[in-house]
Amino acid sequence: MMPTSPTQPFDFDAATLVLTLINTRQTLLPKRLTAPGPDAEQTDALFQAAAAAPDHGELTPWRFVLVSASRREALADAFGQALLERDSSATPAQVAQAREKAFRAPFVALAIARLGACEPDIAPTERLVSLGAALQNILLLAHAMGFGASLTSGQAMRSDPLRKLLALADGEHAVCCINVGTATRAKSARVRPNVAAFVSSL
Ligand SMILES: Cc1cc2nc3c(=O)[nH]c(=O)nc-3n(C[C@H](O)[C@H](O)[C@H](O)COP(=O)(O)O)c2cc1C
What we know:
Layout lengths: L11 H13 L8 E2 L5 H12 L10 E5 L5 H15 L5 H9 L6 E8 L9 H21 L3 E5 L7 H7 L5 E12 L11 H4 L4
Antiparallel strand pairs: 1-5, 2-3, 3-5, 4-5
The structure holds flavin mononucleotide.
């Protein structure tokens, strides 16, 4: 039985299930994703999962912008312009490659961190942690639904064309794309870092 509240007794089966989910999740880049993606109800559930992330001060220091099929062209324009702004000698093939990233996954949403002045004054690092937790909730639920998913970023995230497209306010930063779809190709499991390499005792 899954516990339905944090005060319920620890349930070994639930722990095994969650651990299996965590350990079998892996990045599946957009080139490995195809239709179908999540439907409207599943999309809503993914964002509801984000809303369950820990959030010091309950600021909701992040937001997401879902890019519908009809707006992929606008995202592609921003990716293409971003490349040309940082490298005016980019070839048409390179621009086409940058643009193409907007079309690959059936579900694409931009994750935006809200790191400007706020009340209560919660440090930007803590607010980024909250976004990371929200993103992991989305990735794990997408995995549990049977989808492949990934986060992708790159220099376009910090570009003016993307800021303009997303109408980012002062203090808002585009962090990454969330890509979800049906996995076409398996990927070998990544070797995870050893616990001893990142945990010590005082
Ligand atoms: C914020 C963020 C941005 C990422 N951007 C990229 C990216 O642009 N390209 C990429 O191949 N992987 C990207 N990744 C995925 C990581 O490369 C991946 O999580 C890591 O290699 C571990 O693999 P795993 O997710 O399968 O455990 C990103 C991850 C995070 C957290």
